[in-house]
Design brief:
160 residues, 24% helix, 7-stranded antiparallel β-sheet, 2 helices, Alpha-D-Glucose-1,6-Bisphosphate, Chain A, domain 4, 7 strands, alpha+beta
């Protein structure tokens, strides 16, 4: 199984408390996900994020095909980091770490995603042709939306 990695860093003009309040709420994920993904939370307990929390979604990443995606918040350290992992969905492996660090002018947010696709060689081809670019598109969109929500100015897109 080939495991891929995506990492991004963004500086946010908001306090650590403000960033944590926004990003640790699963309901806000829809606000920073492209509408073209057809992202919809289908089951969520409306609680603040905690280890063991299960969140179910529907997504349409390609050709309007609806997929179910179930993630678990596996680790949470208040105002420092949280980790979500796919339990069921399109990836054979999905591990997403979100780190937050107070800086002199706001908060540094770092995302690190490790993922793998099913189907061996075919999965590697799908990653090269479609998945890698789709993830870049999603993370670029997220970067711009977070910038609009918190920084109120246009910024350069992150480099992956």
């Amino acid at each position: 199984m080939k495991v891929y990695k995506k990492e991004s860093v963004q500086h946010i003009n908001a306090t650590l408390d403000e960033c944590w309040a926004f990003f640790s709420s699963p309901e806000n994920l829809q606000k920073i996900t492209p509408m073209s993904m057809g992202f919809q939370i289908t089951d969520f307990d409306n609680q603040s994020m905690y280890a063991g929390q299960i969140i179910q979604y529907k997504i349409s990443p390609l050709l309007g095909l609806k997929l179910n995606w179930v993630t678990e918040i596996t680790k949470v350290k208040d105002k420092a980091y949280f980790i979500d992992e796919q339990r069921f969905g399109p990836y054979s492996f999905w591990h997403h770490k979100h780190f937050f660090e107070a800086t002199s002018n706001g908060t540094k947010m770092t995302d690190v995603v490790h993922y793998a696709l099913p189907l061996g060689f075919l999965g590697r081809i799908m990653n090269a042709l479609i998945v890698k670019n789709k993830l870049k598109e999603i993370f670029d969109y997220r970067f711009v939306k977070v910038d609009q929500l918190f920084n109120n100015e246009a910024s350069k897109l992150p480099r992956f």
